[in-house]
Structures
1.
Amino acid sequence: MSNFMDLSGPNSLISDKHRLIALTGAGGKTTLVRWLSMFFKAEKKRVISTTTTKILPPPRGHIVLQSDGPHFAERIHSALNLFSSITVARDFDTASGKLLGLSREAISALYKSDTADIILVEADGAARKPLKAPAEHEPVIPLAADLCIGVMGLDAVYRSLHEANVHRSEIFSKITGAGKGCGVTPNHLIALAESKNGLFKECPENCDKIAFLNKTDSPGGEELLSEFARLLPTRKKRSIKWFAGSARNGIIFPVLNNIQKPLATPEIRFAFSQ
């Protein structure tokens, strides 16, 4: 068994107790959701991918829309029996080409029904930027969520703070202390994760929290990880677990443990690329 399968182990990204997983932030949420859904499908799990905001439809796979008629729960159950991994949404918006999200209540009902083994929820919009700070009404995290993964793109680090790189850059500045037009640093990303108004805003009290530094395959990614590994032990807030990797390439590993030994093998990455 490959090291990647240790994702269910004690130092894991996702453990067996996590069934309703919300993703916030920016810089790779959709890619991470699709990769995790493929992983859990390979593990013979029934997986629902959905959103509380808006997402682009997946390039392939079965979609169940609430707007298509009655018996929504029954249609989801039947689809999972056939495909094991599906996307669920309220409706399709022809103007934007996006799937419209389910309400928190609808997702909670799916969770309580035990229809799926894993529910992955994109709970935040980011306008395709590598970083994002939440507005007052964001993110929209289901109350039953037991794990929240906050995603941040490493490709934004040391780039100037403005709206082209950071969604809601003015709010990001207020939360992190980063000056407009100045370079975004690892300390700013850590501050975003640790702030009560930041990456895990609206996260349920007993929900586990993971900060995921995505795009380690971007230029300078390994050097940046060394800087995070140096800074994180000095922080007082230890309720957040820090992981890094490349959702696109199927790599995830703990920032503070075995940086050079990612929890993925070339064989697994190849299998997921099919």
2.
Amino acid sequence: MEFRSLLLLTIMGFLIVEPGFGEIADLAMNDWLKTQMETIMNIGEKLKYVEKYQNDIEALEARLNGTVEELTEQKAEVTRLKKENEDMQTRLNATEEEIDKLKQSARNAAPKIAFSASLSNSGEIYKGPSTEKTLIFKRVFSNTGDGYNQDTGIFTAPVNGLYYFNFNTYGYNTHVIGALLMKNGAHQISTYDNVSTDGSDSSSNAAVLKLVAGDTVCMQLWENGRVFDNLNGHTTFSGFLLFTV
């Protein structure tokens, strides 16, 4: 509105000082004034359009500024979401790595291998002296991993590792009492009690052996030895895998 008023005043100023105004003789004063007012009215009408366009431009500029602000906010939100997504991806990668480690650990975990058996699975039994010295422990309490063969008395290592073995022997002193722990046919440790007059004896022993898959471990009688067992489980043989190597 200020712009329109200023423009009208400027035009009227030009009209007042128009050259030759005092010399007009052919036109009547009323006609001249009418012409000038029409000109002013036309200019006023045009000023309305100018003001309207100016208002439209200002409104458009306001909407544009609002759009810029909205786009700025959206850009900030996109940046925030992108950061959250990167953080989630980082955590996801870490979780996947941990799962891979757990899977690898599970693959590398020692298999479950353990057995325990006693000599007699029914009644009383004396073993020895005999030419077949390998003791076959028939009463199997457990055989996880199927490493022990109750038909042969031999334990065969399924995997490379350190294995713990223990055994107990019982007998009457009319004969040598005891047995030898054998690895691949070689003597490792033993129990032993010579012939005496004290009736009976029991003894035990244990060892940790390093085995590779396929190595065998069993118990053998001493030369001229004898052991005894019944359902009380006096003479036993047990072993299990400590860890793989």
3.
Amino acid sequence: MDIMMGLAAATQALDIAKKLREFDQDFKASEFRLQIAELYGNLADVKIALADAKAALQEKDQEIERLKRVNEGKLKTIRIGNYNFGIGEDGKPLSKAFCPACEQSNGAQIPISRGLSGHDLCPKCQGVYDARATNLPVGFKMPE
């Protein structure tokens, strides 16, 4: 149940409560009991909707915190060609690019490793890349 359904149930419950206040003394007891039962049902729906909304908000808050922690641990990068290279503490780019597949799928900065016969590999996803493109170009200088 979502927030809108919870609000609708709360509105119905308030309408029923308003009707109960307007009852005459001669109102039949069975109709009164029926209205009370409806009121309890609607209030239960409100309680469930609010509990669901609270759980959804807590999940979103946890995901936001997780993403903040992931982002705080990332290196700054510079894009060279089709690859991102991490920038070290000295302000210079690292010699190997990050795996673009891992960066896009889960935000992980996994440096591509040296492979065989002109191909480099991602140690995590096993992606194969052209070694010339994943190495920092010879004589590369950081832009000002």
4.
Amino acid sequence: MWRENSVDLKLNRFYEMSARAVLSLLIIAILLAIVAGVGCTLYDLRLVFNQEFHGAFKQIMVDLLTVLAIIEVLRTALAYSTEGRVKVTYIIDTVIVTVLTEVMAFWYKEIDWQEVAMTISLVLSLALIRIVAVRFSPAGSRKEL
């Protein structure tokens, strides 16, 4: 019995150390992606002088929203490293930012009303899920106790 607990404890410790190592590498990769995204956005500022404003601002806006989505992924990774669990609200925020990037792209192309309706329903359902996740959060129920 004692030997089984010792093996379980060692396996659990190995898993935690491995997960932390992989998560640290992931966080470094995400930070590098953010730096690259900011650099790409700054580089695309040259488009304001070389192209029409409409196309240049579209590219810059998409770059910025992409960097914001990556920042949300970083928030999720950092929350997992500190709390040991993934917060659903961070994942939903990431998806909402990504969907809003697509909505911004809708401004620059002609789309069917069905696609607009599906996108609106997706954003509304994500907002509803986020409200429910915050309302019935495990951290919130622990505070009530």
